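Dear Dr. L.,

I hope this message finds you well. Following up on our conversation about the binding site, I have prepared a predicted three-dimensional model of the protein together with 1,3-dihydroxyacetonephosphate. For your records, I am including the exact sequence and ligand specification that went into the calculation, followed by the structure tokens. Please feel free to forward this to your student if that is useful.
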Amino acid sequence: MRKKFIAGNWKMFKGPEGTSEFISRFVDELLISKNVTKAIDEKKLEIAIFPPSISITRAIELKTNAPILIGAQNMYWQENGAFTGEISASMLKEVGCTHIIIGHSERRNIFLETNDIINKKLTAAVNAGLVSVLCVGELLDDRKSANTFSVIKKQLLDALKGINPQIISDKIIIAYEPVWAIGTGITANNIDAQEVCSYIRNLISEAFGEKIANKLIVLYGGSVKPNNTASFLIENDIDGVLVGGASLEIDSFMNIIKAAL
Ligand code: 13P
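The resulting structure of the complex is given below.
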């Protein structure tokens, strides 16, 4: 059985102060939820939070030994050098990050990241030993013109070019985030989300083999809330959720986690 993976992408919310407030109370809430800590101990569940890069160190220091994984939302693919404003995978490792989001639709659409850039970042992240949450998802126009599957296929296969297949299921998590469902309050229904997540798993199976595909963690993201989480997680090919807005409040994020049990 694949573990459940529940992740909060804070986007550009919560500086170090907001992070301190959240993490200290969230750790308390987590540790008193015996079902949650039991599921984590038994390796049936993982919880990850992706704060803005300036708040990562604060989150890591404050969570101490609590079973929360901390990741970054972005990085550059070079190790170091004259790249003003950027941070590298090895710097993230140095402060204790274990995870990274790569290819989020906001990076693709606002910051014009191409599949080629995403491939370079994914390669660097994998080489540094970070676990990558690789995001793929179609625009509303793609869906309307029945291009969802071709867009997903290109995003996925281009991103994974040259990656050692043996590490794919251990070091890469795929998040299906339809762009039209992000921050809009419109969710893909669980049937549509399952259809694409199953397509993703089949693609991985065709490209890299069934064993790798069966171990792969696939997430859904886009307007996930406490009251719709369970509907996604009962689907065969959805192993978790990548949550934006609803991960910013402790109660809603805790209720999403509890819905995964
Ligand atoms: P929302 O949950 O706010 O729609 O954001 C989803 C997302 O982009 C997570 O990466």
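In brief: The chain has 13 helices and eight strands.

With kind regards,
A. P.
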